[in-house]
Each structure stands twice: as structure tokens, then as C-alpha cells.
């Protein structure tokens, strides 16, 4: 199905590792085999944080998202920054990879979305939040989303995939325990830790963020893609493609 194919392969059978079951937990510090360039700076380590953030050089355990820009020096990608509780449900997977089949697929995707940029992926890092619950949940709602970082050693991209978003907020952020809605909703975007280099995906920190599975800047509902070595804002296409039998909401 299109929803399934939106996500790159993940899980233990793809040699992923899993984050510990720990509220506000993170992966260990993960050294990268090649540098990843983000907002002009090369990074060699990152953390996969349970609360929907991939951060460079420092952990992000914060569970209620603040609006970007954050000028505290923290540099990170926020696929879906909110109060995840993987003790209550779900798993967080990640792997660094040079698998030829995956790199070929990522290359095809980037070439399709950015035909003017010559790019052949030589490395990727894929993190997947699989049906993760929210803090304080009394429901079985789960969110499934993914971030893929990729580079050819000079140009870097981040691909954000949103397969299923059922909640926006944990109870410690003012959310409702039964619905996972209300309060301070989740945030999606990019932050360099300074005043000028950041990007907020439309709908972030509003109730509309739950519709991120239907929005896109590359004409693929649920997928947002950005060049991030020298960050380029790729705007939402003005004319969404017709999709038979669906009512797409484009922010």
C-alpha cells in the first residue's frame, strides 16, 4: 500500500537497534562513520531521542516542544517532537547503513524531488518511531513516523515520513489522557541553535499537526524532504497532484 511504502524498511530484521523502554529516554551517543553536514557544520555523533528528535552532539530529553528558533546552541532535526512514552507502547528503531538497495531507493527519491541537484546517496541513517504512545495515555493510540538522513559526503538531505499520526500531546504538556490531543501539540522542523537557521513545518505546535500525514513539500502525502547541508527551504507545491478517492489537506 502507499502508506506502507512511504516508510523505508525498518525493524530488527533490518539490523536496527532499539532504544530502551524509558520515558524521556535516548539512544546512547552514536558515532557516525561519515560526517553529516547540517546547516554548514559537520557532525560525527548524534542521539535518537525518544521524544521525536534526532540531535547532534547533545541529548534532547525535553518533552514539551518550544517554538523554533531555539537559541541555546542545540542543533537537531525534529520529525515529531512531543511527549512519547515507549514504556506505554511502541518502539524506536535506528540504524546507520550503506545497504545498496536502500541507498538506490533514497537516490531515486532525491533525484525525483530535486532533479536539478546531482545526488547519489552513499550513506544513510534511518530512525523510526513505530506506533509509539504518549505520556499519560489511557488509550491505545500510537504514532508511526520516520526520519532518514542521507549524504553523498558533500550534499545532505533529511527525509521525514509520516505514516500514521493519532496523537499530538502528552498529559504533561496539557494533553487529554483519552485522546492525546490539546495542550501544546507536537512540533516538526529543524533547529540550528541560533537565531536565524531554523524551519518550522506548517502546522507545528498547533492542532493541525495531526494532519501531517496528508501534507508534503514534494507532492507525496506524508513526506517532507529538505536539503540540509546548506539548508534550503523547499516550499509546498501550489498545485497538489490529484489523488483518486481521497480528500488531501494541504497546508
TrEMBL record:
SMART domains, per the entry = NIDO
User: What residue range is the signal peptide?
Assistant: none
Annotated PROSITE patterns:
NIDO (PS51220)
Cite the Pfam families for this sequence.
Answer: NIDO (PF06119)
Its GO biological process terms? cell-matrix adhesion
Query: Which residue intervals define the domain NIDO in the entry?
Result: 79-231
Q: What is this protein called?
A: TECTA protein
